[in-house]
Structure of Nucleoside diphosphate kinase:
Amino acid sequence: HLVASLEVEETYIMIKPDGVQRGLVGEIISRFERKGFQLTGLKLFQCPKELAQEHYKDLQSKPFFPKLVDYITSGPVVCMAWEGVGVVASARKLIGVTNPLNAEPGTIRGDLAVQTGRNVVHGSDSPENGKREIALWFKEGELCEWTPVQEPWLK
Ligand code: RTP
């Protein structure tokens, strides 16, 4: 169980292949943007098997592990790094619980998914894993540290 933190954190969010195939990329990115988090990395990427295995290495003894690796490598994913106060736990709340049938309406999985094995999005479960996963999925030059400026963009 994650408690909201007051620290600026970073988290790795990934739109899984079903989210890309179903045309949900804009919808999902939009939820994190509207919440107020800051995007620091973004790419469409065909994940090699070894990377999927490394990312989910804590689950390698689970019976569903081979299927999980097949799923994650079945088509392109959208890799994202997001930064913000309490972003790790907050992103998990926006995403909803693992089984979409139990996920609250209003969450990404609660609104957009049905099956645990097709739950459209991943989010890091701790600040440590946020850092680990961003380092795993992005090369240094692919991340962008930027300061939002206060401009009257729409004037
Ligand atoms: P994620 O890492 O993708 O954000 O998901 P999570 O923390 O909510 O869930 P976790 O337990 O870490 O499982 C990772 C992913 O494995 C797939 N899964 N399949 N019984 C099953 O068939 C099963 N259980 C888990 C899901 O795609 C889950 O998101």
In short: The CA atoms of residues 103 and 110 lie 4 Å apart. The radius of gyration is 15 Å. The first strand starts at residue 8 and ends at 15.
